[in-house]
Each structure stands twice: as C-alpha cells, then as structure tokens.
Amino acid sequence: MMRTRLISLHVLVVVVLSVALVIPAHASDYVHVEGFGERGLEINCVTAGGPSEAADLPVAILLHGFGGSSFSFRGILEPMADALGTCAIAFDRPAFGFTSRPVPPSCGYWHEARDGRNPYTLAAAVEITFRVADALAPGKPLVLIGHSAGAEVAVAAALARPDRVAGLVLIAPAVALETTSQSNSSLVKGVSRMPCAGAIGAWVLRLIAPRLSTALSSMWHDKSKLTQDIVDGYMAPLKPPVGNWARALWEFTVARSYEKDAPTMASLQQIAAPCLVIAGAQDSVVPIAHSRIVAQSIPGAVIATIDESGHLPHEEQEADTLEAIRVFLSRVGLSRRHGIGRFACDTQQQQPSTCNCRYTVLSCT
C-alpha cells in the first residue's frame, strides 16, 4: 500500500512539473471550435487575470509565431492582464503547441470536400482567433499582440474586423516578407504536387526536428539566456503523447504557400487601430529595417527597438518589452494604469530619439 502511494505521488509530481514547465503560473484549458476538419478543433488556451465588469476594457490575445506556442508568452501573459485590468489569453495556433491537429487520412494533400475545412490557412487563423475571443471574452474589444508570423495573423484580423480590434502590438513582424515567401512557396508547391507529398513532408520534418535547438539559438542575441528549460518547453509539443505534429506542420506550410490574401505593405495602410511595432536590435530573422517599413506603412504606428535582443525580445529582454507595451497602451488609452514607466513619446517629434532605458523610439506620428 505504501509503495503504491509513493508511486502515485511520484507520478503526480512528474505531471505537475511537466505542466509547470509549459504553462507556469497560468490557467490552461481547451476551447472547442467547430467547423474545421471532421470533428472540429480543441484549442489549447492559457489565460491570466480575470474578466472585468467594465465593458470597454480590452482583452489581450497573444499570437505566437511559426514553431512556437503559448509557451513563448509565459513571462508577459500575466503582466499584460495586469496592465489592461482584465484578462490576457494566449492560445496554441493549429499545427503548434497542444492544440489538436487534424490531418487528411491519405498521404496526399488536404481536400476540403473530404477532410472538412482546412484549419491551417490564414483565413482560418483569423476566424479561430475571434472564435477563441468569443468563447473566453465575448463582446470584448481586443488588443492583439502578435509575434513574428503571429503578427501577420494579428494584422489580418485587424483588417477583417476593425470594429473588434482596439490595438495592435507587432513584435518582430513577419508581415509582407514577399521575397522570402515567394521563394519558399515555390519550393513547397513543387514538393506538394508529388505523390504522397504529405507523408514525405512529415518524414522530412521529423528528420530536422532535433535541430530545433540550433534554430532557437539563432533567434537569440545572448545565447546564454537560452536555457535547457526553454529548449525543453519549445520541444514539448513535438514529443509523445502529442500526435500528428509533423504532418500538421506540413499541412500548415503547404496551406500558407498557396495563400493569396496575406497582408501586403499596401494593405497595412488600411489599419485603423493604434499600433506599436517592436523590433529586436539584433534580430537576424526579421531585420530591423523591415520592422521599420512595417511601422511606416501603418498610419500613426510607433516603433521601438529593444537593445541586446534578437528575434524574441519578449523572452530575451522581457522587462524592456513589457515597459514599451505598457506605456504604449497607456498612451493610447487602453491601459488602466496611466503614466507608468520611463518611456515617453513626443508626438511632435519625427526624428529618432533615445530615452532613459534600453530601447529606442524610432518614430512617433
């Protein structure tokens, strides 16, 4: 009897530690979204804070990038909820994290008449974002915080539903990267036309999965901050009992290669919501020059660079990234806390300026 109790206690400790690694100090649950695949989707959501009775207080929705998950926002989720005075929600986009991954039964391509609606398109990502918001914060205005490819979803959502999106924060925005996208799309399209391309693509992705830690390292400016715990957190969704991750990632890649309605630099001019663009000063994935162009294309956008940071400033320089977001939210009237932080934006100033902190305001309009 004692041995059984010890074994049970050991199992419980392992489970608790595993959960703590992936979603520390936050509540996790699943939201069912109908209309995708054959049985719908189970979206893994992580939340912080709680609902507010004030109808005008926005809720933050955090959208991770390619290869990421809600784990990427573990350090800023709760501070965002605190800054807004309501709740903050991060969820695993289809093909990533612990969200369910429907895949075609055959080794070929996704066929909607047979397999149901494809959940891996950009249009699906936008709809799922609003469906999650409707389930957890019905009717609330939204502040969309998107990192890398998640920034593209945020932009597409703001263009689709300007009535619902109260603010945008685009971190290292992989938006309108036409040259890179066209090159990669041609390669993926060629492979996708091969017999059993789905099985082949999944096999290739499983082969390169062990190199994830190397890919992560390239995204960090200070490699010493990339701990084994962080690598393990990113790798967790690629291990049992999670299934179909490789095939789902391939379906996502194929769907995006055929995308025709992705935001362009021209369409960014139609964004009405207040916008903050955040760039890592040493980002080698989305160069700071591209982030500047994105900001210049969005009316009234503000851009801030985070010093000593690569492609993941919200992880590598968490405090400075949070400060920039908090003060932006306060400046545009979306935060319950006004006048906080050391950052100030002079709306009359058009030239780059440096404030008394570790990031730089590049433009204020």
Report on the architecture of this protein:
The protein is of the alpha/beta class. The chain has a single domain (2-363), classed as 3-Layer(aba) Sandwich (Rossmann fold). It has helices at 2-22, 77-84, 112-115, 122-136, 149-160, 178-192, 197-208, 212-219, 228-235, 245-257, 265-268, 288-297, 313-316, 318-331; strands at 27-33, 41-49, 59-63, 87-91, 142-147, 165-171, 275-280, 302-306, 353-354, 359-363. It has a 10-stranded mixed beta sheet, sandwiched between helices. The longest helix is centred in the N-terminal third of the chain and has 21 residues, at 2-22. It starts with a helix and ends with a strand.
CATH superfamily: Alpha/Beta hydrolase fold, catalytic domain
CATH architecture grouping: 3-Layer(aba) Sandwich
Uncertain runs = 1-25, 338-357
Strand content: 15-25%
Compute the number of strand runs.
Answer: 10
Give the biggest beta sheet. 10 strands, mixed
CATH topology: Rossmann fold
Structural class: alpha/beta
Strand order of the largest sheet: 1-2-4-3-5-6-7-8-10-9
